[in-house]
Design a protein that fits this description.
The N terminus is likely disordered. 5% of the residues lie in helices and 43% in strands. It is mostly beta strands. Strand 11 and strand 12 form a beta hairpin. The longest helix has 18 residues. The strands form seven sheets. Strands 2-3-27-26-25 form a five-stranded antiparallel beta sheet, with no helix packed on it. It has one domain: Neuraminidase (6 Propeller). It is built from one helix and 27 strands.
């Protein structure tokens, strides 16, 4: 960050199970094991045909569908390198393909609506990258030797910038070039704009720029973390997560693409993050956990909200819980036709974090 290099540690998240991982990558999807939640699980009411689509990585997650729904892009860690890199693979068989440079902290990929370009955030231009890599390798080795499991934390790497590349991973353009962290970018439905998170003004806020990196404008300016933005299918709203109400306890917010009419869509004693729009119906999906009982272990599940627009404002509606698996289910996204759901979960046999896909049925 600029004045202070802040880390979003999310002490309350109990998310370390997603950060200590070990798995194996398969070319074709494999069926998921029967839910450990038992036969009375609510998951089958709305999500069916659940199958695992990545393996072979130490961990993999934050996946997004290509516009034709035939392939995915995601971030993953291999046993040979300590930081995430960006990969793509077809859903109907085929090996993963590395798209990022292979070095640096790399995250937050997204595919343009025409399917020709990708964006991702990377710190591969860090002038001290070799030292950064060595420090992480040393820390991971010490953790492995001691059996220590580090709690989940997100580094706001000041060398993180957003890059545009073609579908083969060839970098076409550096889209951001400002002091501090620039990441968490996602295209609008028409491909003309990118919403992203930046610390360029001192703390993480939401910005929008044209897809070529020009015409940057700031949407939020509140103390705390505002991040993970996605522009609505109609291009009028941006949904994001924020801990402005209570540090490290995220809630879901929305704001107009013009920076007006901001609204909190969740307000509970919990952590709510990773919101994502349904492409055709008025629904938002996100990851949430209840933190109201300090003696209980919060579990991260997927939640769905129907929203409405009233008098130019976005209004929260009924909320439905989609998953209740005893492991963590996070970072959900819909397929372009809205019929499938992809998310990150450590419901694997070895408890590594991997991507899963299921068929999704919206509430009646």
């Amino acid at each position: 960050m600029l004045a202070v290099r802040r880390r979003l540690s999310f002490t309350a998240l109990h998310f370390a199970t997603l950060a200590s991982l070990s798995v194996a990558l398969v070319a074709a999807a494999v069926p998921a094991a029967h839910s450990a939640a038992g036969d009375d699980s609510i998951e089958g009411k709305h999500i069916t045909n659940v199958r695992q689509v990545t393996s072979g990585f130490v961990r993999a997650g934050e996946g997004y569908f290509s516009p034709d729904g035939k392939s995915i892009i995601y971030q993953a860690v291999t046993k040979d390198y300590p930081f995430y890199q960006i990969y793509t693979q077809p859903l109907e068989g085929g090996a993963p393909k590395l798209l990022s440079t292979g070095r640096g902290r790399t995250t937050c990929s997204n595919i343009s609506p025409d399917g020709k370009r990708i964006v991702f955030a990377s710190s591969h231009l860090d002038p001290d990258l070799s030292q950064t890599e060595e420090a992480e390798r040393k820390q991971q080795a010490e953790d492995a030797a001691s059996g220590k499991r580090r709690r989940y934390q997100w580094d706001f790497d000041p060398h993180m910038e957003i890059f545009e590349a073609d579908r083969d991973g060839k970098i076409l353009k550096r889209l951001t070039n400002s002091p501090g962290y620039d990441a968490e970018g996602a295209y609008s439905a028409d491909g003309k704009q990118i919403a992203f998170c930046s610390t360029r003004d001192g703390d993480p806020d939401i910005y929008v720029m044209d897809a070529d990196g020009s015409n940057v404008r700031q949407l939020t300016n509140s103390p705390g973390y505002d991040g993970g933005p996605f522009i609505s299918p109609d291009g009028r709203w941006v949904v994001f997560r924020s801990d402005r109400k209570k540090a490290e306890y995220l809630q879901i917010y929305a704001i107009g693409i013009d920076g007006k009419n901001e609204v909190a869509l969740t307000d509970n004693v919990g952590v709510n993050w990773a919101p994502y729009w349904h492409p055709t119906a008025p629904y938002l999906i996100w990851t949430g956990a209840d933190h109201s009982d300090p003696t209980a272990r919060p579990n991260y599940d997927l939640w769905l909200m129907k929203y409405a627009e009233k008098d130019g404002h976005l209004a929260a509606g009924p909320i439905v819980r989609l998953t209740d698996h005893p492991t963590a289910d996070v970072l959900p996204v819909f397929s372009p036709d809205g019929k499938k759901l992809m998310w990150t979960s450590n419901r694997t046999a070895d408890h590594s974090s991997q991507l899963f896909i299921g068929d999704i049925k919206l509430p009646e």
